Amino acid sequence: MFKFVKVFLAVLLIAACSKQDDAAKEANMIISTANGDVKYVVEEAQTPDELQKGLMFRDSVAENGGMIFDLTNVQNVAMWMKNTKVPLDMIFLDSDGTISWIFENAVPMSEDYIIPPIAPAAVIEVNGGDVQKHGIKIGDVVKHKFLNNVAETAPAAPVAESEETPAPAVAEETSVQEPVAEAPAPEITETPAN
Question: Is 115 contained in some domain?
Answer without folding.
Answer: yes
